[in-house]
Amino acid sequence: MACPHASSVAAYVKSFHPKWSPAAVQSALITTATPMSDKTTPHAEIAYGAGLINPSRAPYPGLVYDLDVQDYVDFLCSQGYSDKLLEQITRDKTTSCSSKFDNEIVNDLNYPSFALPIKDPKFVNGVFHRTVTNVGSSNSIYRAKVVAPSGLKINVDPSVLSFTSLEQKKSFVVTVKGPIEKTSMVSASLVWDDGAFQVRSPIVVYIQL
After folding, report:
1. What's the number of CA atoms in the CB half-sphere (13 Å) around residue 163?
2. Same domain for 117 and 101
3. Which residues form the Subtilisin-like protease fibronectin type-III domain (predicted)?
4. Tens of pLDDT along 52-98?
5. C-alpha torsion angle, residues 118, 126, 191, 206 (rounded to 10)
6. b/e string for 62-91 if b means 16 or more Cβ within 10 A?
């Protein structure tokens, strides 16, 4: 039932915000989801995602992580897609990977979660750039709250985002450093909280096989 359930809630959110992009709707579903416990599921967020979708909260996320077509094009270019393959996906002959891209774009895709693959648990170092759009209260101040396991250091800069209007955008950087315990993956989270809205994003660090 996961797919029809998620699709119906997405349609429900879209009925409140008909001009929202698919990325904004997805962001709302992810950041308002109810967190699940990883005690019974060793693969945690990799297995169950951000948590249980909350239909009552999803239309009111407070902040959204939005994306446009060019963001996706840049991402595909960073994955080595040729202009021919890109045209087959976009159906647009004017799109091309004329510029050089690197894999850092994967980290910087404006997604409402953070996943960091590592090769050695002793060396954890990742940087993520994100931009959020205010869709909650016109005048609001969000403060970053991080929950992380012992050994994992997560810094958010800036740690306070002040908004003075709706649709206003603010950017921030998340830095993740270790080491971590000898395990295949660890979970953490970032919550932007203004007292009325809690915008939660899961953070996962995992050993890349």
Report:
1. 25
2. no
3. 108-205
4. 899 999 999 999 999 998 899 888 888 888 889 989 998 888 888 87
5. 0
6. bbbbbbeeeeebbbbbbeebeeeebeeeee
Alpha-carbon distance 207 to 195, whole Å? 35
- Number of domains observed in the structure of the chain: 2
- For residue 89, the enclosing domain spans 68-106
CA 135 to chain CA centroid, nearest Å: 16
CATH code for the domain in which residue 163 is found = 2.60.40.2310
Structure token digits, residue 187 = 């979970």
In sequence order, the β-bridge partners of residue 116 are: 205
Where does 32-133 have alpha helices with state H? 44-48, 69-78, 83-90, 104-108
| Inter-residue contact 127 to 179 (CB < 8 Å) | no
Neighbours of 164 (CB within 10 A): 9
